[in-house]
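Quick review question:
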């Protein structure tokens, strides 16, 4: 048997969608298990929605997730080019053949006419679909009728007996509605997705087409094209749609987590996100929820994918991410935090030393940044709400006593700083620890939530600590 070849085929229409990573993960699990190739193909035929920077973002986010491809526009490969806009000549012979064989026809209807037709059909409570006004007509014949456009499109002539049932690797026997006479070549000379996907999957020797559930209704058209062009069709696997907790479809408009870059910005770990995406429909034989990509790939089986819309629960992802963070060797976590914060040199060193203080206190790297920023920032500022609550005139005596205690600590260590502060604030001033240390924490770290206070002060150093207390006292 020839090796399996799978592809992910994102459209560069904006910030990459989480679905691209989701499909890639399952593609790759199968490819790694079977020994085959994973192809990245850029489907950029929709020129109206094309976005220049999107392709690079697709590369960056998939790389970040560790979902690497064997062939693609950036890598090349035996079936290059892998960008559909560079393959326009490839689609023309297929269109010519379909036209010559009477499987497709030109349509000159203007968009206005199509819109009117649709409205009329809806009013009459008829099924909507192209009424074949252009079918069987020459250009001249059609030009005499209203709603004529100079530049035609090409449509498929869907037969009455079009096959509407197909076998899906995840869903088994799958039924789809009868398609409309689908446009396959647009007036701008670009193929539509439906033609391009079939031609490319065939020419690129794709053996398994894995894509979102929303394409089930298109599959009969694709099956017809394979038949008409005399090509063997690949296997199909339609992944379940990811849903919000309220069961609605995840969209970039409604949920930031639909954008892959969001996970990077928030500081999720790629291995945790991979694990989470795998849990969206996949179950391990032992029912375990924490597993690596390699473990998933080793026993991968399409029949273990559940087709019922998995819920994209960010609380669960947060839990999983926190779990990975806590399980990680602290030195490795420190490097992740350093990279996430983008610090170098002495600042990076400080962050490394501070990481053990926050490992147990965060679910995402963003929280580490928020907690450690005070150590490395050149623009220290107290959060206004925290300042208002903890740095008022009535806290001045506490802050002054803290300043003197820290200044006179026996040595510069967390233990000595703690002893000095406790003595001055709790023993001498008679404050409860909460009231004693809250103002000091806010003055020194700028926030009410920070790593452990005495260690934080030790790391920050005496000069800066005293300067911040002075700043609070003079505020
Ligand atoms: N370009 C399509 C998309 O963005 C690909 C669908 C497929 O994988 O066939 O969803």
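Suggested answer, residue by residue:
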């Amino acid at each position: 048997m020839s090796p399996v070849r799978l592809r992910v085929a994102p459209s560069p229409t904006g910030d990459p969608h989480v679905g691209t990573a989701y499909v890639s993960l399952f593609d790759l699990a199968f490819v790694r298990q079977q020994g085959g190739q994973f192809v990245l193909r850029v489907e950029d035929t929709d020129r109206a929605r094309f976005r220049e920077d999107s392709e690079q973002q697709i590369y960056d986010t998939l790389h970040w997730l560790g979902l690497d491809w064997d062939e693609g526009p950036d890598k090349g490969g035996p079936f290059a080019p892998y960008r559909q806009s560079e393959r326009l000549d490839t689609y023309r012979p297929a269109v010519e053949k379909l036209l010559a064989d009477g499987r497709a026809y030109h349509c000159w209807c203007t968009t206005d006419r199509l819109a009117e037709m649709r409205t009329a059909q809806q009013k009459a409570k008829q099924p909507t679909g192209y009424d074949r006004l252009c079918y069987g007509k020459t250009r001249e014949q059609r030009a005499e009728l209203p709603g004529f456009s100079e530049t035609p499109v090409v449509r498929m002539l869907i037969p009455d007996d079009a096959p509407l049932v197909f076998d899906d690797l995840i869903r088994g026997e799958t039924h789809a509605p009868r398609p409309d006479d689908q446009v396959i070549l647009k007036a701008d000379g670009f193929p539509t997705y439906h033609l391009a996907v079939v031609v490319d999957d065939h020419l690129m020797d794709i053996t398994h087409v894995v894509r979102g559930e929303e394409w089930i209704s298109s599959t009969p058209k694709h099956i017809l094209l394979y038949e008409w062009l005399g090509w063997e069709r690949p296997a199909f696997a339609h992944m379940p749609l990811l849903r919000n907790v309220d069961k609605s479809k995840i969209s970039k408009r409604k949920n930031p987590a639909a954008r892959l870059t969001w996970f990077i910005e928030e500081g999720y770990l790629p291995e945790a996100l991979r694990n989470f995406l795998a849990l969206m429909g996949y179950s391990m034989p032992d029912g375990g929820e924490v597993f690596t990509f390699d473990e998933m790939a080793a026993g991968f089986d399409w029949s273990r994918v559940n087709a019922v819309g998995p819920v994209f629960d960010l609380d669960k992802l947060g839990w999983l991410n926190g779990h990975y963070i806590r399980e990680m060797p602290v030195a490795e976590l420190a490097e992740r935090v350093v990279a996430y914060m983008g610090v170098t040199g002495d600042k990076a060193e400080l962050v490394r030393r501070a990481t053990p203080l926050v490992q147990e206190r965060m679910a995402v790297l963003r929280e580490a940044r928020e907690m450690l920023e005070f150590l490395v920032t050149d623009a220290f500022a107290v959060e206004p709400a925290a300042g208002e609550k903890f740095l008022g005139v009535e806290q001045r005596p506490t802050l002054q006593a803290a300043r003197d205690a820290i200044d006179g600590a026996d040595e510069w260590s967390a233990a000595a700083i703690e002893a000095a502060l406790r003595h001055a604030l709790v023993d001498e001033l008679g404050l409860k620890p909460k009231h004693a240390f809250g103002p000091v924490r806010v003055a020194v770290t700028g926030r009410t939530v920070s790593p452990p206070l005495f260690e934080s002060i030790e790391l920050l150093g005496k000069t800066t600590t005293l300067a911040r207390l002075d700043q609070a006292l003079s505020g």
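Why it works: The mean pLDDT is 96. The longest strand covers residues 148-156.
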